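Repro:
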Amino acid sequence: MSSEDVLSEGELDALMESVASTADVPDETGKQPHCKPFDFSTREQTLLAQMPALKNLNEKHCLALAQGISQLYKIAAQVEVEKIQPVKVDDAIAGIRLPSGINLLEIAPLNGISFLVLPGELLSFIVDQFFGGGGNGANSSASRTHLTPTEKRINDVLTEKFLLTLQEAWKEKLALTPQLAAFETNPEFLQAGSPSEFALLFPFTVTVGDWQSSIAWIVPYAALEPFRAKLGNPAAELRPPQGNTDWAAHFRRELQFVDLEISGRFISRPVSIAEVLKLGPGSIVPLRTPTEVTVYIGNQAFSTGEHGALNGNKSIKIKEIIRNERDSV
């Protein structure tokens, strides 16, 4: 090879730049993976907006709770309602300070366990106000990990008042029947169903003079979602958008709230008419354990998966989504 065949340093730099710029251009003809982002928190915010009655019920409950606390302990307590927030269960539990009165509640007809959290500083403050003391609940409970017997008794009475006022405030929408399932002071010992499950946080701020504390009621979102129709605004009817509106966006938004039935077909096998005629009480039909389960949405095959158990419930782990020609429409 002669010296004339060797590229100069400037020619090499220009060649490398052209290669790099070509590599940065996406291949528009290549097939992109079928992957769509889904923000679960946006879904919870959207569904929360479908239950506007929760705000009014919460405000009504707040007023009754303020009167109840003032009458119980003869203190001028003000209770202010805060904005209802969708949170993950593990995040809500992580925010509970130690010690606290954590009351695990079963409230029929709501499914699951909800939490009523009464901070130790609030219980200590009420003890001081009611029996006499320094009145500084924050300092007296900050260095402790357990509640005193008197604070535990205050927790029980305050929980009972909370549930009574809750029943009264919600009775126009839902007839609630609450009962205490368990009690805990350390959030680390709580056993939530699924840590990533969404819940609704109902926070209240309690003020006595210059002193403030809080009360929190944490309810699994799945417990309230079946009552979305009752907790909705009866005056708000579904109607077509007015004016120059995107109809596709309108129907896409409304279709999110259509209820569908999901089912899993575990196993099937063909049988002859002769075999069917031989069947009777006590007959045994042999079936092999399935290695793969088909999940159906309505009557349409949606995915394949593996069957198992999660949190004591039968479940199916989705392995592959079944796509057809309509998915591209």
